[in-house]
Structure formats: structure tokens, C-alpha cells
Amino acid sequence: MDLSSVSDFGQAVAGQIARHFPVWLECTEIEERYSEQYLVITVPSLVGGVEPLTVDTSGDEVTVSYAGYHRHHSAFDDGTAHDALSFIRQLFDERVVVVTYWRNDQWCGGYTVTPDRIPASNDDQPYANIVKVRSWAGTYTRTIQCEGRG
User: Fold this and answer.
1) pLDDT single digits (tens) 16-58
2) Are 72 and 101 in contact (CB under 8 A)?
3) Taking Cα atoms as reference points, which of 72, 94, 93, 96 lies closest to residue 84?
4) Which residues, in sequence order, are CB contacts of 110 under 8 Å at separation 6+?
5) Do 104 and 83 fall into the same domain?
6) Is residue 3 included in any domain, yes or no?
7) What's the pTM value of the predicted model, to 2 decimals?
8) Please, are residues 121 and 131 in contact by the beta-carbon 8 Å criterion?
9) Does 46 lie in the same domain as 113?
10) Which of 14, 34, 40, 133 has the fewest CB atoms inside 10 Å of its own CB, making it the most exposed?
11) CA-to-CA distance for 88 and 54, rounded, in angstroms?
12) Collapsing DSSP states into helix, strand and coil, what is residue 100?
């Protein structure tokens, strides 16, 4: 893939991805928004019916998205606990899971938690009537139906 049209930041991220997840280069596309070309890597979920993990370099930041949640990082791999690679490894190892709240098809919010902190209800988002818990290998994946309040 010719990355010459992608920013230096995007090219650096591509190099880091090639070191850690070389097969992901097969899942990489170049997209354009506001005259900027950036990388979008789409990694299929291990769990059926769950959207893929995506990594993009738009705006010279790394955005990691999974299961209705996304997080922005200033680097893919800078050796800190706050880089995108660390977050992805936490997801893949199921040290964190994604929790999202929905009112029918309307997203109400989301965050990540450790498996021992998975909510059992919509108390954090009372308006929601669905709580979706998603983990990479599916160990903690579940959908909780609730009565929306408000």
C-alpha cells in the first residue's frame, strides 16, 4: 500500500502497527475527510454480531473504536500506559470491557470498566433501557434489558 499521501503521523502509526500486528496491514484503507488522507484499520470482532475494532489516524491522533465506544490517543505506541496499543491490549486480554447505554437505538453513553465492575442495571444512565457489555473474546458479552426512567 502506498502511504505517501498520508501524513507523517499516519505513516509512523502504520510502521508501529506493522511491528505489533502485521496482519492488520491487510485490513488498512486510506480515507479522506476535509482534504486530509488518513489510515483506517478495521479488525473483525471475534464475537458474531459485534462491530469490528477500528483504528484511525484522522487529525493526527489515534482513535480506537469498539462496540459503540471510542477513545482518542496522542500516540499508537509511545511506551506509556496511555497509548492506543496499551488500550487495545487491555481490550484483547479482556482486562477491560466496553459498557454502552442505549434507549432503543439511541446511544446514551459509554465507558470501559474492569470485568469485576460490570454494571447490572442502568443506574449510571437511567434514561437507557438497554445496557450492552462487550468483551473482545466474548467472555463478558451480554445485553441487559432495563426499564428506562425519565
Assistant:
1) 999 999 999 999 999 999 999 999 999 999 988 889 999 999 9
2) no
3) 72
4) 68, 69, 98, 99, 100, 101
5) no
6) no
7) 0.93
8) yes
9) no
10) 34
11) 10
12) strand
